[in-house]
Every structure is written in structure tokens, then in C-alpha cells.
Specification:
This protein is α/β, with parallel strands linked by helices. The protein has an eight-stranded parallel β-sheet with strand order 5-4-3-2-1-8-7-6, with helices on both faces. It has a four-stranded antiparallel β-sheet with strand order 9-10-15-12. The radius of gyration is 24 Å and the shape is globular. The C terminus is likely disordered. About 30% of the residues lie in helices and about 15% in strands.
């Protein structure tokens, strides 16, 4: 059955809010990049960047030996981190399928007798994680993967192949929550990829699925890569490596100097949450599928923090209109949907027992330290909330990021930077 772009957009627009409801609340997910490239330890683009002949690269399948329980380990780590969903590379650009594919014999079942997609899906359900399946459109192994751009017969064969692979993924594993496309190369239009009709047919298999924007279509949500924030009118998710270098595994000893600390992860999460997006944080498992050593402690620390402070991140949060209204540049905020609760994420805890938040024209009803529930003494003085008699030591023992929860009876009024505005504009402009 063929469907027009207008009909397809009308169909997806009508159900998007319902389908995206869980995504808007989730805020944190784990990305998992695993494949033949993991055995090399030089990144997921090694086949192209090191100019491997296809037949030589394919021999890596003989060495592919994920340990028993690796998918369970990934999902257990995601759950401990506080993630609400996980996305796994079912078939990266190298073209090697990590499931028992009848369409693609170049797969993990034929290589090592394992259906890793099945194991991953089962583990996600065990740990109550929404399930995301990553599916590359680009394929370096398939003979039509490059010629499809100029050969019509090759294009037909290749787009049929891509659809058949995704039909397998969305037919054989029960309910799937995300179809996460990547790299629509070499063709440059949705028409060339037949994305409207392929995605329409795939949606018939999984009516509640959400699809990202990487099949040359806006679809349900956008996925800025290695970039926080989006000016898109669409829902969005920042997908971030763990080290700024590679998605796939690289030597842990060398990677750890580039890897994110728990505090850095929380700064990314805060920004995503405040701007209405999600953080999809990647790990690149080792050759045997283990979670890389340098990621474990930071992810566990983030998870411990989220247990005590997750209210400041999960759900529909916003930024304060017009500015941060924190304590200089050592605090930032998220704001509840009704705008009556402000969560102050403090990155550098004061040692003198006092912390001042500038620009508030309204006094909160109550301020508490989220991790302990302890009430904070405060006063409103000349558009400054001054918190006094704070605990001597930073209350957050996990990441050093203390959250102060400020509850207001009404939407607070702000006056961002009154002194700055007086100095630079000669008057106090109310925000």
C-alpha cells in the first residue's frame, strides 16, 4: 500500500502526543554501541577510516565472542544510572546484524550462536526499561550500499533490504518503543529512501512506536549529536558519547582521561531537562560485551544522585524565562511544569553557610535540600533570596551537586541582573 506524505503526516501528527508521553517524562536514556568494531577497540568507523577490505573486515565475525549475560549487564547498569530507556545498535554501518536474521546471513547467530537483540529486549523488560532499536540505513557490507545512489535496480534492492531488516526487528520481539535510524547515506532525500511508505508499513507493526529524524524525515523527535540543546520545534534528545572521542569501544586505560565525571553528566542532564529534551548517554562495551570500566563509577554515582534528586530532572521541566536566577555561574535551575517549584542545582557548595540567589522578586513558601529533606532558613532581601545556616559539608555525597527545592505559592516574579542593567543601561529593566 502506498501513502502520500500529507496522509502520513496527518496520521503521525494525530497520535504523536500520546505516543511521546513517556518520552517527555523520561529525560535519561542509555545508548549502547556494540558490534564487530568492538573487537578492534579503535572506534565504530574503523572499517572505513582504516580502509579495511570488506572480506578482511568480515573475518572479525570469527572473533566476535560476547560473554553470557552482557545484555543483562548493560541494562542493569542503565537502571542503576536512573535511565528510563535504552537504545542498542542492532546493526551498525558495518552491516553486521546482532540478531538471528533470515534476511542478512552476516549476523551474530551465524557467527557465535547468539541473538543479542533477543537478549537485549529481554533484559530491558527485566529492568523495566523502554526498548530502543538502532538501525543504520548506511551499510558498508551490502553490495548495493553505495551503488544505490545512481543505479535504480540497486536502489530498489537496497531499500527493500533495509525494510525487510526492520520488519524482522519490529515483528519478532514483541512491543518495541523506539526505532532509532542513523546515517541516511548515500541518498539525500526521503523519496530516494522511500521513507514515507517504509515507515508507514513499519508503524503498522508497532502502532505506538516513536521514530527519530534520521531517515530524511522529521518524524517524532530530533537527535542532535554531541550537542546539547535544540532550537527545533520538535521533541529532541541529545545523544552523547561518554568521552567525546568514540561511540564504540576504545582502550579503557586511555579513554578514562577523556571520560565524563558524574558532575559533568549531571550538567548535561540539567540542560537537557531544562530545555525540554532528553539525554541519551552512550557506552561502548568492551570486546566481550562488558560495560567499560571507566564508565561504571560515574554512572553508579549519577544513579545514586537520581534516587535522591531525580524529581529535579524527570518529567516536564523548563528553564526560567529570561535567565537562570541562580548563584552566579555555580548554580543552574530546572522549573516544574506549573512554574511554582524551582530546583537549584548547585555545583560549588558554599563553605560559609550562606548562599544567595539573585533576581527573585517573590519569596518562596519553603526551601528544602532535596537529598535530605532538611528545611533551609532564608530571607528575601532586595530581590535576593539569602539562604543561611546551611550544613557545613555539601549534603550531596554522590556527585557534589546539591539541589535546593524552592516552593512558591504562585509563579515567582524575577528581575534578572538589576545591577547589571542599571550599570549598562542606566535603568532597572524588569524581566
Amino acid at each position: 500500500m502506498l501513502i502520500s506524505r500529507r496522509e502520513y503526516d496527518e496520521m503521525t501528527n494525530a497520535t504523536r502526543e500520546e505516543r511521546m508521553a513517556w518520552f517527555k517524562e523520561a529525560r535519561l536514556g542509555m545508548f549502547i554501541h556494540y558490534g564487530l568494531f568492538s573487537t578492534l577497540g579503535t572506534g565504530e568507523w574503523s572499517q572505513v577510516q582504516e580502509n579495511y577490505p570488506p572480506e578482511e573486515y568480515a573475518k572479525l565475525a570469527e572473533k566476535f565472542a560476547p560473554k553470557e549475560g552482557c545484555c543483562d549487564e548493560w541494562c542493569a547498569q542503565a537502571k542503576r544510572m536512573g535511565a528510563k530507556y535504552a537504545v542498542m545498535t542492532t546493526r551498525h554501518h558495518e552491516g553486521f546484524s546482532l540478531w538471528d536474521s533470515k534476511v542478512n546471513p552476516y549476523n551474530s547467530m551465524n557467527a557465535c550462536g547468539r541473538d543479542l537483540v533477543r537478549e537485549f529486549v529481554d533484559a530491558c523488560r527485566k529492568y523495566d526499561l523502554k526498548i530502543g532499536l538502532y538501525s543504520s540505513l548506511m551499510d558498508w557490507h551490502h553490495p548495493d550500499g553505495g551503488t544505490c545512489v545512481y543505479d535504480q535496480d540497486a536502489r530498489r534492492r537496497f531499500t527493500d533490504y533495509i525494510e525487510e531488516l526492520n520488519v524482522e526487528l519490529l515483528s519478532n520481539y514483541g512491543k518495541i518503543d523506539i526505532l532509532w535510524y542513523d546515517v541516511a547515506w548515500p541518498m539525500e532525500s526521503s523519496e530516494s529512501w522511500n521513507s514515507v511508505n517504509r515507515n508507514y508499513r513499519l508503524r503498522q507493526l508497532q502502532p505506538h512506536i516513536i521514530i527519530n529524524n534520521r531517515s530524511r524525515m522529521p518524524e517524532d523527535f530530533h537527535t542532535p549529536e554531541e550537542s546539547l540543546g535544540s532550537d527545533s520545534k520538535y521533541y529532541w534528545e541529545a545523544c552523547m558519547t561518554f568521552n567525546g572521542i568514540s561511540w564504540g569501544y576504545i582502550d579503557s586505560e586511555q579513554a578514562k582521561q577523556y571520560s565524563y565525571s558524574s558532575g559533568q553528566i549531571l550538567k548535561m542532564l540539567r540542560r537537557c531537562s531544562a530545555e525540554g529534551g532528553n539525554l541519551l548517554l552512550n557506552i561502548g562495551p568492551t570486546p566481550d560485551g562488558s560495560v567499560p570500566e571507566e564508565a561504571k563509577a560515574p554512572l553508579d554515582a549519577v544513579g545514586a544522585w537520581m534516587k535522591e534528586n531525580g524529581e529535579a530532572a524527570y518529567g516536564k521541566k523548563y528553564a526560567i524565562k529570561g535567565g537562570e536566577y541562580g548563584a552566579n555561574n555555580v548554580s543552574q535551575t530546572t522549573v516544574s511544569e506549573d512554574e511554582k517549584t524551582v530546583y537549584v542545582w548547585n555545583y560549588s557548595y558554599p563553605k560559609n553557610g550562606t548562599m544567595t540567589l539573585g533576581g527573585y522578586k517573590t519569596a518562596p513558601r519553603r526551601i528544602t535540600i532535596m537529598s535530605t529533606g532538611e528545611e533551609v532558613k532564608f530571607e528575601l532581601d532586595r530581590e535576593r533570596i539569602i539562604m543561611r545556616d546551611l550544613p557545613e559539608k555539601c549534603p550531596d555525597t554522590h556527585c557534589g551537586v546539591t539541589v535546593f527545592k524552592m516552593e512558591f505559592d504562585e509563579v515567582p516574579r524575577y528581575n534578572f541582573g538589576p545591577q547589571y542593567r542599571q550599570l549598562h543601561y542606566g535603568r532597572n529593566l524588569e524581566g
